[in-house]
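Issue 218. Parser rejects a valid record. Input:
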Amino acid sequence: MSLPDDAPNADLQAPEAASQGRPRRQPRSLDILLVEDESAIAKDIEYIVRDLGHRVIGPARTQDEALSLAAKARPAVIIADVKLADGSSGVVAVDEMLKTIDASVIFVTAVPEWLRTGGVEPYFVIPKPYATESVQAAVQKAASRRAQEMPAILATKSAVSRLMRRQ
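Output the parser choked on:
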């Protein structure tokens, strides 16, 4: 039986696990929304995310594009820059998205100090320039956290709300 290319692979066994008689679950592929206005960075992050086996939605270059894509795709993880192409805010976009979806959030930004609230900070903040390994680790943690730690998602929503009050 063949599966379509985009079918979730959560129930497939790794060949080595099958040969040893032990079923082994593969990580489930997630929809990840990319909100980034710099095309070279967007392509690089897209490559990193796809290499981890996830689907990339976007990239969205503006707040309006991000909100439209999020409403259609309902991503499990959002990777967002703080400043977007038309002068709009990735923080505002994320805040709006989190009102209707539960998603892990990763901010990738040249201005990480803008995300300090004095309280609980957003869980994942990666400063630009970034290392590939930093993005990989954050995506893997966000993907695993997605299924395990709803309190962490709620804390991120709270931190983003505090950021909104500061803007």
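Fixed in the parser; the record now loads. The longest helix spans residues 132-148.
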